[in-house]
Amino acid sequence: MDAGIGVPRGAPPVNVAPDQLIRPRTPTEAREAVGVMAAHGTDLVKIWVDDFDHSLPVKMKPAIITAVVEESHRRGLRVAAHIHDLADAQRVVAAGVDILAHGVRDKPVPPAFVDTLRTKGIWYIPTLELDEASTAWADEAPWTRTAFTRAGLSTALQQQIADPAWRQQHASGKQARFSRDSLAINLQNLKTLHDAGVKIGFGTDSGAMPLRVPGIAEHRELALSVQAGLSPLETIKLATGNAADLMGLTDRGRIAPGLRADLLVVEGNPASDIRDADRIVETWENGTSVPGPLSQNGN
């Protein structure tokens, strides 16, 4: 069962599929929802706590959060919380969540909060690309015009972002300002948390919205992490070893004898220049070369 837990009239505003989300109204129903997910073999419970910049009438109440966390932990399951604001992040951390899914994007994280994440071993997934994608196509950022990027776009999306009226609509206004401000804070907080030794994961929310293009989004997350102040090598580790550790996968994420050979072969040295990660020569999945249009060169 590929589902998560929200609340009625709360986040997310719509379900991608009828069974995508369980929306409990009480702590008892929240515990029952965890039980349903556990019975279907889930190994991670996600809750949506954010109210999408006050655009939704309801935000998940602390009693629901606590019930989900307690029941999940009782069943040996971890909990990831979708958040945006620091106050919500502090609330779910106090309730015992294991993963913050998306960065704190409304204000700088205070030292006490940073220390809590570090000492409790709570994972933090910034998803920088989530907000960048909201405006970058309309802004015609240089990376959106590269051959590497264009190769990953559907015809429909190429037509949409080429429309001057669409670009004008999405490059300005309240939502565009909100996305840019959120990205700026997210970059700052990632650097603060990484330098403090907090466990940083890797994610993009790609596929959730058409502008967050799978494949492209992951490469943008690499570039944005370097923009935040991490070194290219530190950033690569987020996307490989850290990502595997977060998911509890011990058979991948590093190059070593006996591990899966999931490899991206590129020209140049992305450990020195992260842009070289886009210069794809070939890809390997579990020891097998995977052919594709980018297998010769990603430029």
3D structure, described in words:
This protein has 299 residues and is of the alpha/beta class. It has one domain (4-254): Alpha-Beta Barrel (TIM Barrel). Helix content is 42%, strand content 11%. It contains eleven helices and nine strands. It has helices at 27-39, 62-74, 86-95, 111-120, 129-139, 147-150, 155-162, 164-171, 174-195, 216-227, 232-246, and strands spanning 4-5, 21-22, 44-48, 78-82, 99-101, 123-125, 263-266, 280-285, 288-290. The strands form three sheets. A four-stranded parallel β-sheet has the order 3-4-5-6, with helices on one face. The protein has a three-stranded antiparallel β-sheet with strand order 7-8-9, with no helix packed on it. Helix 1 (27-39) packs parallel to helix 2 (62-74), helix 5 crosses helix 9 and helix 10 (216-227) crosses helix 11. The longest helix is centred in the middle third of the chain and has 22 residues, at 174-195. The two termini are 39 Å apart. Mean pLDDT is 94; it is low at 295-299.
